[in-house]
Amino acid sequence: MTKDKLSYKLMKIVKSALAALAVPVFVIYIMVAKPDYAIMNGLGHVILPVAGAVGDLVTWPVRLVGDGIHWVRETSQIRTENEILRQKLDAALTNKYACDIAIGENKKLEHEIDVKRASPYESVVADVIFNDSVFHHNTFFVNKGRKAGLERGMVVVSFDSRLIGSIVDCGSQFCRVRAITDSDSNIAVRIAGSDVSGFLQGNGKKRATIGFFSDTQFVGRQGLKIMTSNISGVFPSGIYIGDMIDENRVDVLQPNQNTRVMILKYNNMDSYK
Amino acid sequence: MNIFFYYFYKFWPFLITLILWRLATAFWNPAGVLALIPIFYYTFVRPKNCFGLIGLLFCFLIDYRCNLPLFWTTMFCLFYAINGFQSYLDIQNMGKNACGAFLVFIGIGFFILSFSKINWANFINNLWLFCWLGILYIPITSIETTFKKQKP
Fold first, then answer.
1. Measured between CA atoms, how close is B79 to chain A, in angstroms?
2. What domains are there in chain A, each with its CATH number?
3. Among A38, A257, B37, B142, fewest CB within 10 Å belongs to which?
């Protein structure tokens, strides 16, 4: 079909008209479907695995070489990492006795004031498949989905039980996780060892911002530990998030620091499943 | 060998888009945004049959992975409509593989995204991606031409 033919020109106009028609449809959908975007997510659940599978098939030699380089680099760093871990282990053992005493005291106090603390009896281990920290959004995908019993709203933590984020969209074999550094993330937190609550907001940067403290006189400082508070019911209470580095910034776990995560089957109803 | 080249050229636009989207890495190609280069090139500059739909599909996939609801998909449709209805700017005959038009396309996108969350980190991140896509545009779009020259 040459450019000068009438049919070509007509076809071009029809295609452009269709594209022009799609723009207001998309804009209205974006405004109406917020925050669930059910149709978009439903389409994503079908298209993403198919495109991913075809992409895997096409790009396997490149990824094989990449994985090989990654493996060599990791192996060469094992000795250094081992030394660092030994130092950390020594430091941890030094604190162990103090922690044991504190845990004992804590249990005694909980018993005295009749605190009932639930604990998760089920969690799912999943691998990070796509890490998509881009623009002001920090999301990533894990390779377990509804088939593994996961649902929207479940909590994602690292293997050292540090909060990473929560599931925002769940396909049959994958889930999209919103990290706490994502600009759409805003969670209720508590300063460990005090009654002061606040809100931790992601901003797309490496560090999240904390503010709106329940105690207006409270001033944050370096070293204070932040944990979830379950005020809004989004996260269970008591999950360690990170340390404050100044009066309003918190050093949190980055999505790219994990290749494997744990998903707690928490149902957003102030209890674990 | 000719059959190989025939199919290679036929599927190259789809392959390069798929490869760039799939080989996403956190810093160099977050969420496969580099796939915007072949999407733009093979839709507006060297249009291939039915590639518009592929472009739309991959824009959707980039949006889905970026957690940007239909942003690049809408941008793509908007540019498609504008390009189709006007005859003042002929993108297909622009120099340097229409790199200028591509920079306008992604520039508007990144500009809007910079204002969706105003902070320095977001601004620098967008600036970096704008420069990186601009730098890689001509090399990526020239691959096909380079292969064609070597065709036996």
1. 9
2. 122-273 (2.40.10.340)
3. A38
